[in-house]
Design a protein that fits this description.
Elastase, domain 1, 5-stranded mixed beta sheet, Peptidase_M4_C_domain, two-stranded antiparallel sheet, alpha/beta, Neutral Protease, domain 2, Neutral metalloproteinase, protease, globular, zinc
């Protein structure tokens, strides 16, 4: 039996939850199965956002518009409004982290990439916290963010997950699914789906790096650092620097991400939509290589190249080769043909086993 988050874009991959459901103790198994089994219920509640749909699409002309709701451990969305744009902190960590993380993501996109919110039209950033009781995931459902509290109701020795607002790169990751939705709208399957996940990891990591003012060589390049409790042998959900090394735990299993095309996992569609959370390690590592070769703040050059490619070139069925060609071309347009930036893009993709095609080189010349 398998479970898919599409089109909910969950942060925790189904293979991790399946492993917990098979290997964990009774409390952990029950929690993992609950997280896996509610996806259909969540889809059924997407229409609950209809009353706030006009608010979502209200143009804000370059101003943040954040609203955080509390589901109060129920499943109705969006829940009770608890913090609006400009309101003081509430003292509830989940509420305030969701608010601050949405703001940091908004700031990255508007201040660096001149993008006015998720849809580039001032879309209000809606978040719901305290979704269900002991829900071990967070997701973007096409209209808003939703966060579970993890295992806070479990005995300390059984807990695997902290609250899902505690990792700012998770917030940036999920909101970037919205950016991709409004731009390339990458199909959520096989390589295009893995590229979709990778774009979210790239910009989620950039949100964290910019918040901490880290240069590429100082960043940890981890996605979901802090989500796991001390009971788990894990640094994060994924590592862009070293895919396959993020976790190795008796309950979770070992991180299966490849870093090179020679290790690409050929999976059936019913296995995580063809491995979208697994093979994303390849384009993730390509971006890491580009960013570290260029140095400095990764959002300034590597991030700009990836953003323009996502906005203007990459389309719904693009795969890794297409992404490599387009980022190479964009680097030439932004920084000049044969520039160090364009060479870094070529090198980065080559280091994960993808060479820029001759037609792309000719077009960028």
């Amino acid at each position: 039996m398998t479970h898919r988050c599409n089109p909910l874009y969950c942060i925790i991959p189904p293979h991790i939850l399946r492993n917990v459901a098979e290997r964990g103790n009774s409390n952990q198994k029950a929690s993992a199965w609950r997280a896996l089994s509610i996806s259909d219920q969540i889809r059924g509640h997407r229409q609950a956002l209809a009353p706030i749909a006009p608010l979502l699409m209200t143009p804000l002309i370059g101003a943040k518009g954040r609203s955080v709701y509390d589901a109060q451990q129920e499943d109705e969305l969006p829940g009770k409004l608890v913090r609006n744009e400009g309101d003081l902190p509430t003292g509830d960590p989940a509420v305030d982290e969701a608010y601050d993380g949405a703001g940091a993501t908004y700031d990255l996109f508007i201040e660096i990439f001149e993008r006015n919110s998720i849809d580039d039209r001032g879309m209000r950033l809606i978040s719901t916290v305290h979704f269900l009781k002991g829900y071990d995931n967070a997701f973007w459902n096409g209209q808003q963010m939703v966060y579970g509290d993890g295992d806070e109701d479990m005995p300390e020795q059984d807990r695997l997950w902290n609250r899902f607002t505690s990792s700012i790169d998770v917030i940036g990751h999920e909101l970037t699914h919205g950016v991709t939705q409004f731009e390339a709208n990458l199909a959520y399957r096989f390589q295009s789906g893995a590229l979709n996940e990778s774009m979210s990891d790239v910009f989620g990591s950039l949100v964290k790096q910019r918040t901490q003012n880290q240069t590429a060589d100082r960043a940890d390049w981890l996605i979901g650092e802090g989500l796991f409790t001390s009971n788990v042998n894990a640094a994060a959900i994924r590592s862009m620097k070293a895919p396959g090394s993020a976790y190795d735990d008796p309950v979770l299993g070992k991180d299966p991400q490849p870093a090179h095309m020679k290790d690409y996992k050929k999976l059936a569609f019913w296995e995580d939509n063809g491995g979208v959370h697994i093979n994303s390690g390849i384009p993730n590592h390509a971006f890491y290589r580009v960013a570290t070769e260029l140095g400095g703040h990764a959002w300034e050059k590597a991030g700009m190249i990836w953003y323009v490619a996502l906005r203007d070139r990459i389309r719904w069925n693009s795969g890794f080769q297409s992404a490599a060609n387009h980022t190479f071309q964009v680097a030439g347009e932004l920084f000049g043909p044969g520039s160090k930036e364009q060479q870094a893009v070529k090198n980065g993709w080559s280091q994960v086993g993808i060479n820029i095609e001759a037609k792309a080189k000719k077009a960028a010349a």
